[in-house]
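User: What would this chain look like folded?
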Amino acid sequence: MTGQVARADVEQAVPEPLGDDGRPDHDGRCGLPLALTVLAALLLVSAVAGLAIGSVHVPPGQVWGIVTHALGAGWVEPDRSRARETIVLDVRAPRVLLGAVAGAGLAVVGTALQALIRNPLAEPYLLGVSSGASLGAVAVIVFGVTLLGPVSLSAAAFAGALGALLLVYATARTGGRITSGRLVLSGVAVASVLTAVLDLLLLTTDRGNEARAVLAWTLGGLGGVTWDTLWLPGAALLLGVAVLMAQSRNLNLLLAGEEAATTMGLDVARFRARMFVLLSLVTGVLVAACGPIGFVGLMVPHIVRLVVGGDHRRVLPAAALGGAVFLVWADIAARVVAAPMEIPVGVLTALCGGPFFLWLMRRDARRSAGRGGS
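Assistant: Here's the prediction, encoded as structure tokens.
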């Protein structure tokens, strides 16, 4: 009887949706179907823009003709040259798809990390997860390890991401508690150490040409992708989104606190361990494909919550679409801002994410001060 009463009390204490700060979020925000429809439309427009915009401009009408003809619309005879068809289908289309997949994956990973650690500043790049994945991938490249064949790079990146995440979490957890400041500091410290080791590997390797290419890769970018390499990031994204959607209720419970989640029957330690493995896998595969791209997993979840609320059943699909839209446009900007030179997309996301991170810290500091003074 006592257990039933406690369970009922916790159910009342865990709102259906929860805000990004763990507070009840009874909002009259945009409905999920409308939000997803708008985001899907924006993603379609973004994809067309990504195929059309570049050093060689391809009119959107020709883009539609080339794509629909390639998809088997035999009645469509697009007005295009062979060169433009090659640019759209073989150069830009894989790049746009990788941008959408990577943006979606990083956004959902950031969303899940913020719930798992109950920290609004959690994000793969800031927590050192991306640095760990980068170190694993670079070690494979420098030492020429190919034990697992074509997936060796992704496997090493996964191992590095998981190791970095566990190290940050263990370092920040003191007395059974984790504070936002301690977590961020631990992430920065671990990322700095891993980056230093990565730089040391690049400086001491005798493969000069590979070292320069890897150094450019560590800045994050979508160039050089081919159709043959897209299947693995796509599979990792589908796996991650499917599992996280199935666990969205448990993610909601964690936002109410570990004690409340335990009372509701969730084994918090085991659940976190499983989720850390999953998130490290997704992050590692994405980093292996396009390098470490920061702050997507920080910005997109917070922006999405302003639109659809805090329930993870709503946030996760919206964050996936929002992250895809954001990274596709970031890549377009990287191609045209300093044309004909291409800026690494990770540089642009950092220029956007750095100020956003500072604003988020100031906002949380004001909230903490307000609660302390009340």
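The CA atoms of residues 123 and 298 lie 5 Å apart. If you want, I can go into more detail on any region.
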